Amino acid sequence: MRVKVKRLRDSLRTEEIGLRILIVYDTGSVNRNTERVAKAMSGVLKEKGFDVDCLYVKDVDLAGVKNYDCVLAGSPTHVLRATRLIMRFLDRFAKDEFSGKLAVAFDTQLQGRITGNAAMGIKKKLEKLGFKMVMPPLVTYVEGEMNEMQLKEGEVEKTKKYAEDLAEALHP
Predict the structure, then answer these.
(1) pLDDT of 18-29, one tens digit each?
(2) Alpha-carbon distance 121 to 142, whole Å?
(3) Which of 70, 89, 97, 83 is nearest to 170 (CA)?
(4) Beta-strand (E) ranges in 3-160?
(5) Which domain holds residue 97?
């Protein structure tokens, strides 16, 4: 019974808010850190009543992207920038194709002076496509040896707080 009540409450909140959000991400590590960030944001936004689809970049229907009101795009930082896969995905759309739609960029990266920043490249590309950025990009940090990278302590909590702030920005 509790599950049915929660689902009903969630469906009512989604209708009330009426914003459809796509979270699209690439992930490159064995531990799937960028996916973990995407799913943490998705969980919070769903709890807040948004209609959210959280998809690996290869699973996104290109024609359906236009049906979303807001797109969150993220990638791990590889060789100082976003992965080719997420950038190729964004390159498939025309300049100003999403004029007036909302967006957010996010990434996972090592913390350091010369580590690069995937989120900034994604942000610039989203802006060229006509998206209006809702908030500054979310940068989450990883640590560890290559192929064993983990999100740093506190990064999941930071991500959830960011998603709460995003929910507030999208529906004050």
Answers:
(1) 799 999 999 877
(2) 19
(3) 70
(4) 20-25, 51-56, 70-78, 81-82, 102-110, 132-133, 138-143, 150-151
(5) 2-170
Better pLDDT: 77 or 123: 123
Q: What band does 153 get if pLDDT is binned at 50, 70 and 90? A: very high
Residue type, 83: T
How many distinct structural domains can be found in the chain? Answer: 1
User: How confident is the model at residue 4, as a pLDDT?
Assistant: 38
> Domain of 12: which CATH number?
3.40.50.360
Max Cα–Cα distance, the chain, nearest Å:
53
Unique residue bearing structure tokens 């973990």: 36
Q: What share of the chain is helix, strand, coil (3-state, %, to 5)?
A: 45, 25, 30
Segment 49-92, tens digit of pLDDT: 999 999 999 999 999 999 999 999 999 987 677 889 999 999 99
8-state DSSP, 72: E
Q: Tell me the backbone φ, ψ of residue 54, rounded to 5 degrees.
A: -115, 110
Tokens of 167: 């929910």
Give the residue from 76, 140, 65, 141 showing the smallest Cα distance to 103: 65
